[in-house]
Amino acid sequence: MFTNARGETCYDEPVALHDEDGRLNARGYATSMLIAYDRARIKASKMRIKEWDYYLVNDDDFAIALTLNDMGYLGMISASFLDFNTGAFKTSTVLTPLPMGKFNMPSTTVSGVSEFENKQVRMRLKAANGARRLECTFKKFDGDEELSLDIVLDREPRDSMVIATPWAEDPSAFYFNQKIIGMRAEGSFAKGSVTHDFKPENSFGLLDWGRGVWTRDNTWYWSAAQGWQDGRGGNAPGSHVFGFNLGYGFGDTTAASENMVFVDGVAHKLGRLDFGIPELEGAQAAKLLKDRYDFMKPWHLTDDEGRLDLAFTPDIDRCDYTDVKLVISDQHQVFGTFDGFVILDDGTRFEVRNLRGFAEAVRNKY
Q1: pTM, whole model, 2 decimals?
Q2: CB-based contact 45:51 (threshold 8 Å)
Q3: Where is 94: in which H helix or E strand?
Q4: Strand 15-16 with 35-36, pairing
Q5: What would the mean pLDDT of 2-9 be, rounded to a whole number?
Protein backbone atom coordinates (compact mmCIF):
# COMPACT_ATOMS: atom_id res chain seq x y z
CA MET A 1 0.00 0.00 0.00
CA PHE A 2 1.22 3.52 -0.76
CA THR A 3 -0.11 7.06 -1.08
CA ASN A 4 0.20 8.72 -4.48
CA ALA A 5 1.03 12.37 -5.15
CA ARG A 6 -2.61 13.48 -4.86
CA GLY A 7 -3.05 11.75 -1.49
CA GLU A 8 -4.97 8.71 -2.73
CA THR A 9 -4.44 5.27 -1.21
CA CYS A 10 -3.24 2.62 -3.68
CA TYR A 11 -3.00 -1.09 -2.89
CA ASP A 12 -0.14 -2.96 -4.56
CA GLU A 13 -0.32 -6.11 -2.41
CA PRO A 14 -3.27 -8.37 -1.46
CA VAL A 15 -5.59 -7.07 1.26
CA ALA A 16 -8.95 -8.18 2.69
CA LEU A 17 -11.87 -5.86 2.00
CA HIS A 18 -13.25 -6.50 5.52
CA ASP A 19 -11.54 -7.59 8.71
CA GLU A 20 -12.79 -10.58 10.69
CA ASP A 21 -15.12 -8.33 12.70
CA GLY A 22 -16.80 -7.05 9.55
CA ARG A 23 -15.22 -3.60 9.52
CA LEU A 24 -14.18 -2.15 6.18
CA ASN A 25 -10.44 -2.82 5.98
CA ALA A 26 -9.61 -1.33 2.56
CA ARG A 27 -10.30 2.20 1.36
CA GLY A 28 -8.68 3.20 -1.90
CA TYR A 29 -7.88 1.82 -5.34
CA ALA A 30 -5.81 -0.79 -7.14
CA THR A 31 -5.16 -1.69 -10.78
CA SER A 32 -5.91 -5.40 -10.36
CA MET A 33 -8.10 -7.55 -8.12
CA LEU A 34 -5.82 -7.37 -5.05
CA ILE A 35 -8.68 -6.56 -2.67
CA ALA A 36 -10.41 -9.76 -1.55
CA TYR A 37 -14.20 -9.84 -1.14
CA ASP A 38 -15.83 -12.25 1.30
CA ARG A 39 -19.63 -11.99 1.59
CA ALA A 40 -19.55 -13.93 4.88
CA ARG A 41 -17.65 -11.10 6.58
CA ILE A 42 -20.30 -8.46 5.88
CA LYS A 43 -22.11 -7.37 9.03
CA ALA A 44 -25.34 -6.20 7.43
CA SER A 45 -28.73 -7.68 6.67
CA LYS A 46 -28.93 -9.91 3.59
CA MET A 47 -31.67 -7.55 2.44
CA ARG A 48 -29.06 -4.79 2.03
CA ILE A 49 -26.21 -6.68 0.34
CA LYS A 50 -25.94 -5.92 -3.38
CA GLU A 51 -24.00 -7.98 -5.92
CA TRP A 52 -24.04 -7.29 -9.66
CA ASP A 53 -22.34 -8.12 -12.96
CA TYR A 54 -22.82 -5.73 -15.89
CA TYR A 55 -21.35 -6.32 -19.35
CA LEU A 56 -21.38 -3.99 -22.35
CA VAL A 57 -20.28 -5.15 -25.80
CA ASN A 58 -20.12 -2.78 -28.74
CA ASP A 59 -18.68 -1.94 -32.11
CA ASP A 60 -19.50 1.14 -34.19
CA ASP A 61 -22.91 -0.21 -35.23
CA PHE A 62 -24.52 -2.00 -32.27
CA ALA A 63 -24.26 -2.53 -28.54
CA ILE A 64 -25.58 -5.20 -26.20
CA ALA A 65 -25.68 -4.81 -22.40
CA LEU A 66 -26.45 -7.50 -19.80
CA THR A 67 -27.10 -7.02 -16.08
CA LEU A 68 -27.48 -9.66 -13.39
CA ASN A 69 -28.18 -7.93 -10.09
CA ASP A 70 -28.94 -9.32 -6.63
CA MET A 71 -30.16 -6.31 -4.63
CA GLY A 72 -31.02 -8.38 -1.56
CA TYR A 73 -34.76 -7.96 -1.43
CA LEU A 74 -35.07 -7.88 -5.23
CA GLY A 75 -33.28 -9.51 -8.14
CA MET A 76 -33.00 -7.72 -11.48
CA ILE A 77 -32.10 -9.44 -14.75
CA SER A 78 -31.85 -7.01 -17.63
CA ALA A 79 -30.75 -6.86 -21.26
CA SER A 80 -30.37 -3.88 -23.59
CA PHE A 81 -30.04 -3.55 -27.37
CA LEU A 82 -28.83 -0.42 -29.17
CA ASP A 83 -28.60 0.34 -32.88
CA PHE A 84 -26.27 3.30 -33.39
CA ASN A 85 -27.22 3.69 -37.05
CA THR A 86 -30.95 4.16 -36.48
CA GLY A 87 -30.94 5.37 -32.87
CA ALA A 88 -33.25 2.52 -31.82
CA PHE A 89 -32.85 0.97 -28.38
CA LYS A 90 -34.71 -1.41 -26.13
CA THR A 91 -34.26 -2.56 -22.53
CA SER A 92 -36.23 -5.38 -20.94
CA THR A 93 -36.05 -6.41 -17.29
CA VAL A 94 -37.26 -9.33 -15.22
CA LEU A 95 -37.66 -8.85 -11.45
CA THR A 96 -37.61 -11.64 -8.91
CA PRO A 97 -38.22 -11.30 -5.15
CA LEU A 98 -35.81 -11.90 -2.28
CA PRO A 99 -32.73 -13.49 -3.87
CA MET A 100 -30.60 -12.53 -0.82
CA GLY A 101 -27.51 -14.36 -2.08
CA LYS A 102 -29.30 -17.23 -3.80
CA PHE A 103 -27.75 -16.24 -7.14
CA ASN A 104 -24.42 -17.46 -5.65
CA MET A 105 -22.51 -14.78 -7.51
CA PRO A 106 -18.71 -15.20 -7.53
CA SER A 107 -16.49 -13.46 -4.99
CA THR A 108 -13.94 -12.58 -7.68
CA THR A 109 -13.86 -11.62 -11.35
CA VAL A 110 -11.13 -14.14 -12.14
CA SER A 111 -13.40 -17.18 -12.39
CA GLY A 112 -16.93 -18.28 -11.67
CA VAL A 113 -20.46 -18.24 -13.06
CA SER A 114 -23.31 -15.79 -12.54
CA GLU A 115 -26.57 -17.15 -13.89
CA PHE A 116 -30.35 -16.96 -13.73
CA GLU A 117 -33.14 -18.81 -15.51
CA ASN A 118 -36.92 -18.66 -15.49
CA LYS A 119 -39.63 -19.06 -18.15
CA GLN A 120 -38.75 -15.76 -19.85
CA VAL A 121 -35.00 -15.34 -19.59
CA ARG A 122 -31.86 -17.44 -19.31
CA MET A 123 -28.62 -15.58 -18.63
CA ARG A 124 -25.24 -17.18 -17.99
CA LEU A 125 -22.05 -15.14 -17.48
CA LYS A 126 -18.97 -17.33 -17.08
CA ALA A 127 -15.33 -16.38 -16.44
CA ALA A 128 -12.65 -19.06 -16.85
CA ASN A 129 -9.14 -19.44 -18.26
CA GLY A 130 -8.74 -15.75 -19.10
CA ALA A 131 -11.96 -15.46 -21.11
CA ARG A 132 -15.60 -14.58 -20.44
CA ARG A 133 -18.57 -16.16 -22.17
CA LEU A 134 -21.87 -14.29 -22.21
CA GLU A 135 -24.98 -16.28 -23.08
CA CYS A 136 -28.55 -15.03 -22.99
CA THR A 137 -31.96 -15.97 -24.35
CA PHE A 138 -34.68 -13.42 -23.56
CA LYS A 139 -38.18 -14.33 -24.77
CA LYS A 140 -40.58 -11.50 -25.63
CA PHE A 141 -37.69 -9.09 -25.31
CA ASP A 142 -39.29 -6.53 -27.62
CA GLY A 143 -42.94 -7.36 -28.15
CA ASP A 144 -42.88 -10.88 -29.57
CA GLU A 145 -39.24 -10.60 -30.61
CA GLU A 146 -36.67 -12.72 -28.81
CA LEU A 147 -33.11 -11.62 -28.05
CA SER A 148 -30.44 -14.32 -28.13
CA LEU A 149 -26.68 -13.99 -27.97
CA ASP A 150 -23.44 -15.88 -27.45
CA ILE A 151 -20.35 -13.68 -27.09
CA VAL A 152 -16.82 -14.34 -25.84
CA LEU A 153 -14.59 -11.62 -24.36
CA ASP A 154 -10.85 -12.20 -24.13
CA ARG A 155 -7.49 -10.39 -24.33
CA GLU A 156 -8.17 -8.85 -20.96
CA PRO A 157 -5.90 -5.82 -20.36
CA ARG A 158 -3.13 -5.86 -17.77
CA ASP A 159 -4.70 -3.10 -15.68
CA SER A 160 -8.23 -2.36 -14.55
CA MET A 161 -9.97 -0.03 -12.10
CA VAL A 162 -10.58 -1.50 -8.64
CA ILE A 163 -11.96 0.68 -5.86
CA ALA A 164 -13.24 0.31 -2.29
CA THR A 165 -15.36 3.23 -1.12
CA PRO A 166 -17.10 3.80 2.25
CA TRP A 167 -20.00 6.09 3.14
CA ALA A 168 -19.25 8.60 5.88
CA GLU A 169 -22.80 8.49 7.23
CA ASP A 170 -23.05 4.68 7.55
CA PRO A 171 -20.10 2.57 8.79
CA SER A 172 -21.66 -0.65 7.42
CA ALA A 173 -22.04 0.73 3.89
CA PHE A 174 -19.41 0.23 1.18
CA TYR A 175 -18.97 0.10 -2.59
CA PHE A 176 -16.46 -2.41 -3.98
CA ASN A 177 -16.05 -2.37 -7.74
CA GLN A 178 -13.87 -3.50 -10.61
CA LYS A 179 -14.19 -2.07 -14.10
CA ILE A 180 -12.35 -3.93 -16.88
CA ILE A 181 -12.21 -1.82 -20.04
CA GLY A 182 -11.16 -2.81 -23.55
CA MET A 183 -11.55 -6.58 -23.77
CA ARG A 184 -11.92 -7.91 -27.32
CA ALA A 185 -15.30 -9.34 -28.31
CA GLU A 186 -16.29 -12.11 -30.69
CA GLY A 187 -19.72 -13.64 -31.20
CA SER A 188 -23.18 -12.72 -32.39
CA PHE A 189 -26.69 -11.74 -31.39
CA ALA A 190 -30.13 -11.97 -32.94
CA LYS A 191 -33.07 -9.73 -32.15
CA GLY A 192 -36.06 -10.67 -34.26
CA SER A 193 -34.89 -10.33 -37.86
CA VAL A 194 -31.79 -8.32 -36.88
CA THR A 195 -28.60 -10.39 -36.64
CA HIS A 196 -25.08 -9.12 -36.12
CA ASP A 197 -21.59 -10.51 -35.67
CA PHE A 198 -19.12 -8.90 -33.27
CA LYS A 199 -15.65 -9.32 -34.74
CA PRO A 200 -12.54 -9.02 -32.53
CA GLU A 201 -10.77 -6.58 -34.85
CA ASN A 202 -13.35 -3.87 -34.14
CA SER A 203 -15.50 -5.05 -31.19
CA PHE A 204 -14.86 -4.45 -27.52
CA GLY A 205 -16.35 -5.43 -24.18
CA LEU A 206 -16.27 -4.06 -20.66
CA LEU A 207 -17.23 -5.43 -17.26
CA ASP A 208 -18.66 -3.49 -14.33
CA TRP A 209 -18.44 -5.95 -11.40
CA GLY A 210 -19.64 -4.74 -8.02
CA ARG A 211 -20.41 -5.89 -4.50
CA GLY A 212 -21.59 -3.69 -1.67
CA VAL A 213 -23.95 -2.39 0.96
CA TRP A 214 -25.31 1.01 -0.01
CA THR A 215 -27.12 3.84 1.64
CA ARG A 216 -30.73 4.22 0.57
CA ASP A 217 -30.68 7.02 -2.00
CA ASN A 218 -27.75 7.71 -4.36
CA THR A 219 -27.06 9.60 -7.56
CA TRP A 220 -23.90 8.78 -9.48
CA TYR A 221 -22.19 9.74 -12.72
CA TRP A 222 -20.25 7.20 -14.79
CA SER A 223 -18.63 7.23 -18.20
CA ALA A 224 -16.68 4.62 -20.14
CA ALA A 225 -15.43 4.20 -23.68
CA GLN A 226 -13.23 1.76 -25.59
CA GLY A 227 -11.83 1.46 -29.09
CA TRP A 228 -8.92 2.04 -31.44
CA GLN A 229 -7.12 5.41 -31.36
CA ASP A 230 -3.84 6.64 -32.84
CA GLY A 231 -3.30 9.22 -30.08
CA ARG A 232 -2.13 11.90 -32.52
CA GLY A 233 -5.53 13.22 -33.54
CA GLY A 234 -5.52 11.80 -37.03
CA ASN A 235 -8.39 10.15 -38.87
CA ALA A 236 -6.48 7.00 -39.83
CA PRO A 237 -7.32 3.73 -38.03
CA GLY A 238 -5.64 3.76 -34.65
CA SER A 239 -2.91 1.43 -33.45
CA HIS A 240 -3.65 1.74 -29.71
CA VAL A 241 -6.47 0.11 -27.75
CA PHE A 242 -7.66 3.07 -25.71
CA GLY A 243 -10.36 3.36 -23.09
CA PHE A 244 -11.34 5.08 -19.88
CA ASN A 245 -13.40 4.77 -16.73
CA LEU A 246 -14.62 8.04 -15.21
CA GLY A 247 -17.06 8.63 -12.38
CA TYR A 248 -18.05 10.40 -9.17
CA GLY A 249 -20.90 11.02 -6.76
CA PHE A 250 -21.01 7.61 -5.07
CA GLY A 251 -19.94 7.34 -1.43
CA ASP A 252 -16.98 9.00 0.30
CA THR A 253 -14.19 9.14 -2.30
CA THR A 254 -11.67 10.84 0.01
CA ALA A 255 -9.30 7.85 -0.27
CA ALA A 256 -9.44 7.67 -4.07
CA SER A 257 -11.43 8.47 -7.19
CA GLU A 258 -12.21 5.83 -9.81
CA ASN A 259 -10.88 7.87 -12.72
CA MET A 260 -8.44 6.11 -15.05
CA VAL A 261 -7.56 6.01 -18.73
CA PHE A 262 -6.03 2.94 -20.35
CA VAL A 263 -3.59 2.82 -23.27
CA ASP A 264 -2.85 -0.69 -24.53
CA GLY A 265 -3.99 -2.03 -21.17
CA VAL A 266 -1.84 0.26 -18.99
CA ALA A 267 -3.65 2.48 -16.47
CA HIS A 268 -3.04 6.21 -16.04
CA LYS A 269 -4.64 7.63 -12.88
CA LEU A 270 -6.59 10.89 -12.87
CA GLY A 271 -7.97 13.04 -10.05
CA ARG A 272 -11.47 14.55 -9.70
CA LEU A 273 -13.87 15.16 -12.57
CA ASP A 274 -16.93 17.07 -13.63
CA PHE A 275 -19.09 15.79 -16.49
CA GLY A 276 -20.32 19.21 -17.57
CA ILE A 277 -23.87 18.07 -18.36
CA PRO A 278 -25.97 20.99 -19.65
CA GLU A 279 -28.52 21.93 -17.00
CA LEU A 280 -32.02 23.17 -17.70
CA GLU A 281 -32.65 26.66 -16.43
CA GLY A 282 -33.85 26.79 -12.84
CA ALA A 283 -33.89 22.98 -12.52
CA GLN A 284 -31.30 22.37 -9.79
CA ALA A 285 -33.95 21.11 -7.35
CA ALA A 286 -35.76 18.90 -9.89
CA LYS A 287 -36.60 15.42 -8.60
CA LEU A 288 -36.31 13.68 -11.99
CA LEU A 289 -33.02 13.76 -13.87
CA LYS A 290 -34.78 14.56 -17.16
CA ASP A 291 -36.13 17.72 -15.54
CA ARG A 292 -32.65 18.81 -14.46
CA TYR A 293 -30.41 18.01 -17.42
CA ASP A 294 -30.58 18.47 -21.19
CA PHE A 295 -28.92 15.14 -21.91
CA MET A 296 -28.85 15.40 -25.70
CA LYS A 297 -26.84 18.61 -25.83
CA PRO A 298 -23.01 18.32 -25.88
CA TRP A 299 -21.31 17.59 -22.55
CA HIS A 300 -17.88 18.84 -21.49
CA LEU A 301 -15.87 16.47 -19.28
CA THR A 302 -12.90 18.00 -17.44
CA ASP A 303 -10.71 17.14 -14.46
CA ASP A 304 -9.22 19.27 -11.68
CA GLU A 305 -5.61 18.97 -12.88
CA GLY A 306 -5.94 20.03 -16.52
CA ARG A 307 -5.18 16.51 -17.73
CA LEU A 308 -8.50 15.61 -19.33
CA ASP A 309 -10.70 17.62 -21.65
CA LEU A 310 -13.36 15.75 -23.62
CA ALA A 311 -16.35 16.93 -25.63
CA PHE A 312 -19.13 14.34 -25.60
CA THR A 313 -21.62 14.40 -28.47
CA PRO A 314 -24.75 12.36 -27.58
CA ASP A 315 -26.80 10.39 -30.07
CA ILE A 316 -28.90 7.99 -27.91
CA ASP A 317 -30.31 8.51 -24.42
CA ARG A 318 -31.02 4.99 -23.15
CA CYS A 319 -33.39 6.17 -20.47
CA ASP A 320 -35.41 4.05 -18.08
CA TYR A 321 -37.58 4.96 -15.10
CA THR A 322 -38.90 2.51 -12.51
CA ASP A 323 -41.01 3.34 -9.46
CA VAL A 324 -42.30 0.31 -7.56
CA LYS A 325 -42.49 1.99 -4.13
CA LEU A 326 -39.50 0.31 -2.47
CA VAL A 327 -37.41 0.78 -5.60
CA ILE A 328 -36.96 3.94 -7.66
CA SER A 329 -34.50 3.88 -10.54
CA ASP A 330 -34.04 6.93 -12.76
CA GLN A 331 -31.46 6.09 -15.44
CA HIS A 332 -30.01 8.05 -18.34
CA GLN A 333 -27.20 6.13 -20.02
CA VAL A 334 -26.32 8.39 -22.93
CA PHE A 335 -24.33 6.97 -25.85
CA GLY A 336 -22.30 9.04 -28.25
CA THR A 337 -18.75 9.95 -29.23
CA PHE A 338 -15.84 11.62 -27.42
CA ASP A 339 -13.28 14.08 -28.80
CA GLY A 340 -10.49 15.86 -26.96
CA PHE A 341 -7.32 14.90 -25.13
CA VAL A 342 -5.88 13.35 -21.99
CA ILE A 343 -2.42 13.85 -20.50
CA LEU A 344 -0.89 10.50 -19.59
CA ASP A 345 1.18 9.86 -16.45
CA ASP A 346 4.46 10.53 -18.31
CA GLY A 347 3.20 13.89 -19.62
CA THR A 348 2.34 12.68 -23.12
CA ARG A 349 -0.69 14.33 -24.69
CA PHE A 350 -2.98 11.64 -26.13
CA GLU A 351 -5.55 12.91 -28.62
CA VAL A 352 -9.01 11.32 -28.69
CA ARG A 353 -11.09 11.39 -31.86
CA ASN A 354 -14.57 10.00 -32.51
CA LEU A 355 -14.35 7.42 -29.72
CA ARG A 356 -17.64 5.62 -29.09
CA GLY A 357 -18.77 5.25 -25.50
CA PHE A 358 -21.34 6.48 -23.01
CA ALA A 359 -21.82 8.80 -20.06
CA GLU A 360 -24.61 8.41 -17.57
CA ALA A 361 -26.43 9.99 -14.67
CA VAL A 362 -28.35 7.54 -12.49
CA ARG A 363 -30.40 7.96 -9.34
CA ASN A 364 -31.24 4.77 -7.49
CA LYS A 365 -33.34 4.56 -4.35
CA TYR A 366 -33.35 1.01 -3.06
Answers
A1: 0.96
A2: no
A3: strand 89-97
A4: parallel
A5: 94
